[in-house]
Amino acid sequence: MAWRWPILMVLCLWHGLLAAEPQPPDEQTLLQLYGNEELLSIATGSRQPLAKAPAVTTLITAEDIKAIGATDLDEVLETVPGLHVARDPAGYNPNYTIRGIYSSYNPQVLFLINGIPITNFLFGNRNEVWGGMPVQAIARIEVIRGPGSAVYGADAFAGVINIVTKTKDDIRGTQVGGRVGSFATHDGWALHGGRYGGFDVAAMVEYHQTAGPRPTVEADAQTFYDQLFGTHASLAPGPVNLQRDNLDLRLDLARGGWRFRGGLQHRRDIGTGAGVAQALDPQGRFGSDRWNADLTYHSTDLAEDWDLTAQVSYFDTSQTVQRNVLLYPPGAFGGAFPQGMIGNPEVFERQLRANLSGFYTGFDQHLLRVGLGFNYFTVYRIRELKNYTLVPNEPPLPLGALVDVSDTRAAFLTPGNRKDYFFFVQDEWKFAPDWELTLGLRYDYYSDFGDTTNPRLALVWETRQDLTTKLLYGRAFRAPSLAEMRNRNNPVAIGNPALKPETIDTVELAFDYRPTDRLRLGLNLFQYWWNDQIRFTFVPDLKGDTLAASNTGKQTGHGLELEADWRLADEFRVTGNYSWQNSTDETTHHDPGYAPRDKVYLRTDWEFLPDWHFTPQVDWVMNRRRPLGDHRPPIPDYAWVDLTLRRKRLHDHFELAFSIRNLFDVDAREPSPAGIPTALIPYDLPLAGRSFYGEIRIDF
């Protein structure tokens, strides 16, 4: 039975914890156990060893990213225990599903770049025109699995992903590189780090262009409507549209206690995936420019016993249409749309943030952190062109030509803004030898839905010299998005200005066991209660088939994560993890669907000759259920195997690598959304087949 797997693995690991004799570590062992590469700040704001951080965390370094030959952030995050990268039909945007918590726009995961959110106000996601994220400028990735609102506020719900970009010390000179591969993929990058005029300078540029994989969608939403109208307009079977053209720029300047960082994620010719309306669209193209800038001042000298940080940041993001987006193809709805049903939504958004925080060390055995701040979000412009209008309970009606409805009541949304004032306090208290208690509380007041208070408690016990035990509790919230509160002129789903935030309470028990300097084992157990889930449901005082957003959902879940990192020899290392979760939609008493119940990841790093590195890895995704009412066959499991061969220090300055993705060319698929009366893409979302990549790097 499936339940025996996790129980058996827990018992085996627990037996090992009890049976092993503790070995006193020497200084070199401690450096290996808690060296700089395992220090992270995402859990509390202060840098701590991974094992002692009062949260369940994962740290991925630039060396890890390079070892697996990753070309995009999603390939890296798939290695994190308890995290699976699912796909949405529109643009094939990533859905970072953590511990069984899945929703269409994935607003329950907070995404940070250098500790600053880039979550969009419109949908609560990372932008509908995401287009991926390259990895050459990344120094490390810090991930929290579990709540983080006591530190980060809104949307640190199921987890937090923090991308830390490289500084001058990470680059040390000049690096250039390039990659070519399947699907007409061409990548290039250049990084430079140095000191000029008293400033530490790091500059990074990355370029990515691809036609994208073209797996076949056998049937789509238009296939369903063809059956209703007796037409043959659908473009299915046909390939998904995953082409893209990306340019990423980053700049890091530091001097004394000051640091300025700026970045641009420039996206052009972004394909529509399986279609915005789940109908294939080979012609639609989106674009986006995401600008970010922040200025930080850090000082330990302004006041006695105080370590102070002040920061202001700016984020500007857009969604634009470069080529008409086909919601449905030519001939749709009985031939009413000979040119296709076209909808071109454009959105422009800004965010401003300011905060002041400090650590106070004047109390014996206490590290006190306090902070306050202000966030401002605005969708300041909406532009919409379309050739249709919607009438309740009727098929779309053609307008004959593209009409600009931006400043009319026919627009899908009106501009809006939100203000957030917050205060937080946190105490790290070493109340006894080998015991530390972290208490935290954050209060947020929002201008559009009111206030919310989120506590945390973390008890960390250094049980033995080789074993750390953690008992954790946290509450987190997810703020309603602008679309959920103000969506209008949509007879299918409208917003609700009376929404409350979603909340989650999570309890975790975690063990970090390091019997030798070459072996680390981890076990994490969790239980969560997700309340006030925002869903679109029928409202009694509305007529027709209109759905409105409301706080009607509730979900519970529990599970475990096992982790292992074993360096068998200087030249051979094995890492892996196993995750199991069991979630229940409490309104239907059924599995909520989509997320894998079981997931296994295994990787080996083998230096079989001097400077020759071979890294195979396998990602096994299992046991994904359908939600209640979705009567399609079960989603097939898949095991995805990658290989990377790397030659380092070739003539001192060169490095070569060759990678194969999906070695066995498995037909891997991510679940498509259920629908009423049927799923619009019935055979799920196909992933890329076997692909090949070669790269070269040069260090000066």
From TrEMBL:
The record places domain TonB-dependent receptor-like beta-barrel at 252-663
Q: Which UniProt keywords apply?
A: Cell outer membrane, Membrane, Receptor, Signal, TonB box, Transmembrane, Transmembrane beta strand, Transport
InterPro entries linked to this entry: Beta-barrel_TonB, Beta-barrel_TonB_sf, Plug_dom, Plug_dom_sf, TonB-dep_rcpt-like
UniProt key word Transport: yes
Signal sequence residues: 1-19
Q: Where is the TonB-dependent receptor plug domain?
A: 50-160
Topology with respect to the bilayer: Multi-pass membrane protein
Q: Cellular location of this protein? A: Cell outer membrane
UniProt record similarity statement: Belongs to the TonB-dependent receptor family. Hemoglobin/haptoglobin binding protein subfamily.
The answer, when asked if Flavoprotein is one of the entry's keywords, is no
Give the protein name, as stated in the record: Iron complex outermembrane recepter protein
Quote the CDD domains the UniProt record gives.
ligand_gated_channel (cd01347)
